[in-house]
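tmp note - mRNA export factor
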Amino acid sequence: MSFLGSSSTGTSTTATSSAVTGQELLNDITINNPPEDSIEDISFSPQQDLLAVASWDKKVRIYEIDPNSGNNMGRAMYEHEAPVFSSRWSIDGTKIISGGADNQVKIFDLATQQAQQIGQHDSAVKSVRYVECGPTNTQVIASGSWDKTLKYWDMRSPQPVSTINLPERVYSMDNSQKLLVVGCADRHISIIDLNNPQQIFKSSQSPLKWQTRCVSCYPQANGFAVGSIEGRCAIQYITENEQKKFGFSFKCHRKSGGNTTGTTNTTGGAGAGLRTTSSSNANESHAYSVNAISFHPIYGTFSTAGSDGTFCFWDKDAKQRLKSFPELPGAISATAFNKTGTIFAYAVSYDWSLGYMGNRQDYPNIIKLHATKDLEIKQKNKR
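out:
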């Protein structure tokens, strides 16, 4: 059976597609020669099946993947001077941008295999994105930092094109079309309309009670999802009208008694959770950080992945979980769909939720490729 040969368009009930059988991940392909330290970010090229991986080992690796067999090999690699927190592709797929704890923004040319620094912050660069600004769709690089700034860079100048002061340190950032959303410390959310990129269009606070871990924009660019360390996800919209009609939040990566949204263990395999109640063991509840949210490029459904070592597929419009998957032997630190949504990549790696002491030598550090099925990821009312 080919790697993608198992794709299915058959129908099934919600209960059948959502149930965990334990067999769903047996055919997932492992990426060869993974990073030597924790995996912080992964992203697919928008043009071909190339995967960029940012790691705490100070390197960005690019892997080439055969979508038919899942066979993969290293294509290129370049280095920062400290752990790399974010890597993303240019729109034409010819370059990779990255930022990390060395405060630098770098760009790597896939054709020449050369990397160069194009930007500098006063503190760690937590997230980078390639964006198109204004009516002429001018392409620039956006970088968000712990120095509480968002900067735009043009490769032709060592100075930022523009700088926006943010309310707090940047923890996560994402864009879609002309929407750029920045998740900051203290639950601040800054929304930027890239038609007017030099100012914040709207400021708000996450509706979730605890620290923001990730934000991810909808493909339609009319809203975004927020994940927090409390094991919850919020579905948000830009306009007040849509927010009132369609906005909501839900629990995802949690364990209560013997049941969980994605089975977890609490003794180190996938990282310990935030204990929320403790009147008795049967009623004890654990919440696990939502580390990554990725939207399917075709269907607009999405995945959540967490410190509990599980990931799930969801339909926000139907407010429905489409599919749960078995627990993995470590936290899931990053996820990504390829350009067609037929491959879902996930990194099983230490997510630093337990601090330095939790980073054991035997902790898993792998990237897996899952061939998605319509049965798992497509909206039920669009079969």
